[in-house]
Amino acid sequence: MTRRLLAAADLVVGPVVAVGVVAAGLLLADRITVPAGSNVGLALTATGGALVAAVLAAAAWSRSPLVAAPLAWVGLAALPALPLTLFLANTPHYLFGVGGDQQFRVAFLTRFADSARLADFAYADMPPYYPAAWFWLGGRAAALLGVDAWAFHKPFSIATLAVTAVLTYALWALVTSRPRAVGAAVATTLAGFVTLAAYSPYSWLTAALVPPLAVLGLRLVRRTGGSWVRTALLAGLVLGLAAVTHTQILVFAGFVLTMLAVDGLVTRTARPATLAVTVGVVVAAALPLTLVHWLPYLLASAGQPTYSAGQHFLAEAGSRWPLPMLEATPVGALCLLGTVWIVARFRTDPVARGLGVTVACGYAWYLLSTAALAFGSTLLAFRIQPILTAALACGAVWAVVPLAGVLRDRGVRAGACAAVVTVLAAAVVVGQVQSVPQDYAWTGTAQDYRPDGTRDPADANAWLGDLHTTIDGLTGRPPREVVVASANATLLSYVPYFAFQASQPQYANPLADYPARTDEARRWAAAADPGRLLDALDRGPVRAPSVFVLERAADGTLRLPLAQDRFPDPRQGADPAVFAPQLFDDPAWQRRDVGPYAVLVRADVPPVP
Length: 609
Description:
The protein is an alpha/beta fold and 609 residues long. It has helices at 2-31, 40-61, 65-87, 102-114, 133-145, 149-172, 178-194, 201-207, 210-222, 228-243, 247-266, 272-301, 316-319, 330-345, 350-372, 385-409, 414-433, 436-439, 464-475, 491-494, 514-525, 530-539; strands at residues 483-486, 498-499, 547-552, 558-563, 573-579, 589-594, 597-602. Strands 1, 2, 3, 4, 5, 6 and 7 form a 7-stranded mixed sheet that branches. A hairpin with a 5-residue loop joins strand 3 (547-552) and strand 4.
């Protein structure tokens, strides 16, 4: 009974403690001066890493689970939170500010901070395509706390990483001893650091759980290790969580579990009938959460033309096979040790088998992603690299036991062996934690939202406040009721307007038909006169914008930047839609110039319901 209560506490109380640790860390960081560009942050990170390592060592050494569990929750939450909190101490933004992928992520949070209604982050009148659970929860929390969504992105992301570390520990504690579970959770978190998983915390939330899920899946296939029904329900809930947070992780986790089932049938460690029942329970547990997100989208897409460019991206990390065991880093050393142990014990140890199948599926995913290039797509293999690295690093935790046995055979006492292992583990933790500022230096976080003050016309952020005020003043409507075609894409991240077009085709909802909307914008620009422009807007196949935010060119024309999917060519630039200013010489339009932009508002358009 005590074990069950502890397992429940890991899953329920542990995440709450993790959020508390992050909140305390952020409050403390606000009181500490960390000069930008100085070595103060580096010193604090290194010393803090040593203190976190000491807490984790105490959790692993403690013989009382009632003491070990809270220490593990605190230490594991602080492991990702401490270096990132110090690294971001000089900015209200999270990694990369509101640039790159963060642009649509902040827009998604902004959407749900404004309304709890399930909606796409960009387009009006359609359900979301990208799983929205993490953004919905963050947006609603921001609204409850009275914090702007863009400012809440940072604490919410760090809290997610902390909670993920604790949940990883909770799952590992179901399949191994608590000291090993601490080690596996630490190895997983460090693997997340080196693979830059912190850049997309909502993906890491379930990606980090795949290695322990694989070991649980092997138990399910073989019907070993306690109540298979509880295990099946838990596996299904993890899959359901993946379904509403990151589709690719759902598919990959399903791929791993399927390979484990095939392995069970081939090796005759599973009976087809019992395996079918187990699969049914897992699917039944995953289905409710899955349908919350996917049912509205599937119903809306039935019989409709779609265009998806989401897989039209080949990152450098996805273009070469990951070999973390050959990297000269602390985590690289863990992966090398883990690789040796997994290969050596694959046939005899169920943990090695579960981790080995996960790694094999990771490399198979890379192979399939390369093969998909022949069909003009990819499988975004770089998203799998953190899982593969985590699985190999976790193997090192189990390799320590035979390594300690070798030391004992050489006459080293058990206490000395444990001390050696603890010191080496602490060194790995400190070494990897103190490298975080260098590893993430490329994510530049100096962006800030400046609604007033002295402004540089070349700085798009400098005009956001004036653009927002102008649009709201001319429309007289809440932002959620307005569709904007904007030359300033960042505006749509900070304010919950709907967009006529997403800033990049990879972010676009397939229901939006990105190329068709781009062509539609060009047709508007080619209109012969104001009347025909209004007619084209009214007769278009989708809801037209009632607000244009256009760049004012030196020749007097007004320009709307456009993008184009040219995969495998990484360039997405396209010629802008160029509007003659005379097209808006009609009483239907009101114009205000704001810095380098022209704001054109049509007031007689019905609001978005």
